[in-house]
Amino acid sequence: MAAPLQFDLLIKNGIVVTASDEVRADVAVKDGKVVMLALGLEAPEGCRVIDAEGGYVTPGLVDSHVHVAQSAAKALGAKSADDWTSASRSAVAGGCTSMIAFAVQNRGESMQAAVDAYHQLATGNAVADYSFHVIVTDPSKEQMHGELPSLIEQGITSIKIYSTYPALKLSDEQILECFYAARQYGVTTMVHAENSDMIAWMTRDLAARGMTAPWNHGTSRPPIVESEATNRVLALSELMDCPVLFVHVSAPDAFKVIREAQTRAMSVFAETCPHYLLLTGKEMRAPGFEGAKACCAPPLRENPADRELVWNSTCNGTVTVVSSDHAPTNFYDENGKQLGLTKNPGKSPRGDFRYIPNGLPGVETRGPLMWSEGVCKGRMSPSKFVELNCTNAAKLYGMYPQKGTIQPGSDADFVIWRSPTARKTSKVTVSNLHSACDYTPFEGHDIEDWPVMTILRGEVVYDGATNNVVAKPGYGQFLKRGKSVLSGPRNKWLNEWRPSYLDAAGEEDTQNASGGANGK
């Protein structure tokens, strides 16, 4: 007689959703891992049983773009509203079980030092599982070919680079250095693409005219600022044959050039965020200084038609991942958005956008908003939701199939959502959120359903019935990541030039053996 099956958690009566399928199945868990999916499983003695009551069971969400204890306006004295405990508590309350934050390399310092510093901040304090990207500001040969391979061995397999912000931006030549190394070592490269010189010129001119209200932040960054930089960085990535991910894409022409590159089979990926799907530039025109709450970069777009284009691009496959770009600074804080009033040379009652820290909070609201506006309102299927919010991020950042799916061997990370007939509508309100940020840009927004429960590695970490995070700081574990399993270099070149490391490795350009000038 066969021994009875052993597991310690059983989720029954749910519709299990992956990026490819929806299936009615029970999910059995043992020691924090999925061990079986089947109908009619019986719970062994001592096993905890959770009844999904006909609702959907999705993988735990993966938020691959969050800023924790880090502000792009640090030089102004800005301070992040969230530490690792408050940010990760907020994450799991919105269904997010894995988050990847940014370790910032300061110019002249090492990437390793940045990673070590962020480990010290996160270790023992996180509720969700977590990892780091490295923001590269000094791509020297030593950093790119000495420290980067070492970081890969430590499970840090992604970098982010900027084409804007004085403290962060790289020149085109430096971007090429990053792409060269990223292709060689198989590192996922994220790019914040905006034209820094355009922004600087527009900002100076607006300030000289006294046009410094919060909505002029958007004036200083018209869509062409993003689309120009996106097109330019695409050219650099094609020259290096290096895959690239454009983060927080919002501009119509930026989506257009990304889509065209994808159509040419380039390994080009796009990320967008709920605020570009749900908000517009009118948020920055709120009375008084309230518009500062909506200042982010790229800015919210004025034309409502642009928002619909973001939805189209999200649903038609142009967008690879939806992330929150959680970048919280408090509104009522002298080290937060209030810097736009206190550092205000013109003494305008509306403040000065040049000193308003960019960024919006959103790690907790991302999942519920995308489920409500995407799935509940029929814009996308539950499987498409999982693809955008779980699976593709896990694949792109080297966490799949440990994260981002529900299958035997995967971490037992789940979000339970109600069935369509049992949904409970509500409104977003900052008083019910778990971030330390004192506002949300989605205040009053209708929510069709909020997670019933969030489970991380087989343990309930958030209980929607009480709106309580029940996991303790330190439950979250560092994720040692591998390399992307999405499409990589194509080995197509624009002329006879090849990276020297291909020659050194004796590799043959099999796709361009004839040596044609266009590599086709």
TrEMBL record:
Identification of the protein by name: dihydropyrimidinase
UniProt similarity note: Belongs to the metallo-dependent hydrolases superfamily. Hydantoinase/dihydropyrimidinase family.
Residues the record lists as N6-carboxylysine modifications: K160
Keywords annotated in UniProt: Hydrolase, Metal-binding, Phosphoprotein
Post-translational modification: Carbamylation allows a single lysine to coordinate two divalent metal cations.
InterPro entries: Amidohydro-rel, Hydantoinase/dihydroPyrase, Metal-dep_hydrolase_composite, Metal_Hydrolase, Metallo-dep_Hydrolases_sf
A molecular-function term among this protein's GO annotations: metal ion binding
Keyword Phosphoprotein: yes
